[in-house]
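Thread: zinc ion complex, take 2
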Amino acid sequence: MTESILSNEAPIRLGFFFGILALMALWELAAPRRRLTVSKSLRWINNLVLVFLNSLVLRLVFPVAALGVAALAQERGWGLLNALALPAWLKVVAAVLLLDLLIYGQHVAMHLAPPLWRLHRMHHADLDIDVTTGARFHPIEIVLSMAIKMGAVVALGVAPLAVLIFEVVLNVTAMFNHANVRLPGALDGVLRLFVVTPDMHRVHHSIEPAETNSNYGFNQPWWDRLFGTYRAQPAAGHDGMTIGISLFRAPRFLHLHMLLAQPFLSGAAAGGGGPREAAGAEESGDETR
Ligand SMILES: [Zn+2]
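Output below.
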């Protein structure tokens, strides 16, 4: 069973990615949460080209990736979980939870450490948030994340099946919680006890720094509640809130080469100084529409 799942890794990943992408895209058309403010086709092309580019870069930098090092760790008996005598299913559950906690911690670090924020801010600079935002990351951040994950997989002794489950689930939940979809409030309230919902994650994409620095979870919502970073709703409401960050709001940042340049740009080149000036420019200039 495990063997056949792992030998069909590529079709499983692609199937979930395109399946959920199509499903969320249709849901966004049928019941959108917010009106989009910039060209959807331009954003979609950029964000999807980034997905392709990132897979290519990962393949070139890491020929074996997380699944490969998991197989090696299992074979050699490396890592915490490989040393413990626990049922296999329990190790899978523990590994998925531990990796999710790691991603939460990594995400917090991405926001707090200025050099890391330079890499991560391209994800936040998207002026609208929808299903493709969930896959919009700078290639350098993707390489760094993979290196950290591979280290964790070896240290924790995560089994290959757990790595695949974790990666596919994270991919699915990230596309779900970035989607511009409307869910009945009661349903959202119940769902967000178990998974990060679109309304919960949208708060994290607010231009307000206090809101950007909350709701770091991508999958399980419990870490935010446990570590005090949970924020239920945006202060301005989901319709009134501004998506993005104070930098990179000029139309030239809608182009792919400018997205890739973002980690290397200074505040001045990015079209704003501190959050204060940028907020002022936002009210008067409104150059994004
Ligand atoms: Zn973030």
